[in-house]
Design goal:
By secondary structure, the chain is an alpha+beta fold. It is built from 3 helices and 4 strands. It is globular. It has a 4-stranded antiparallel sheet, with helices on one face. The termini are far apart. It has one domain: HPr-like (Histidine-containing Protein, Chain: A), CATH 3.30.1340.10.
Length: 88
């Protein structure tokens, strides 16, 4: 299982639009993954509602986890996405 920590780049955090953008990208990946904020249980990365329930804000660190042969590549893609502004 691979894991990465990333600080959120979106000024508005992971509210509706950024959460949906991230979840859509995560759902398209070939391996299952989760996203978590310290102190809260992880949620499926491909679930927009689950991602929004984390309440993650700008600059918060989130933990991405994925399993499978392509986990590292998937996490790199998702880290790059979360590092930038998703609400533009």
């Amino acid at each position: 299982m691979a894991q990465r920590v990333v600080s959120l780049g979106s000024r508005s955090g992971l509210h509706a639009r950024p959460a949906a953008t991230f979840a859509k990208a995560a759902a398209r990946t070939p391996v299952p993954g989760t996203i978590a904020v310290d102190g809260k249980p992880p949620v499926r990365a491909g679930s927009p509602l689950g991602v929004m329930t984390l309440g993650a804000g700008h600059g918060d660190q989130v933990i991405l986890t994925a399993a499978g042969d392509q986990a590292q590549a998937v996490l790199e893609e998702l880290v790059a996405l979360l590092s930038k502004e998703l609400d533009a």
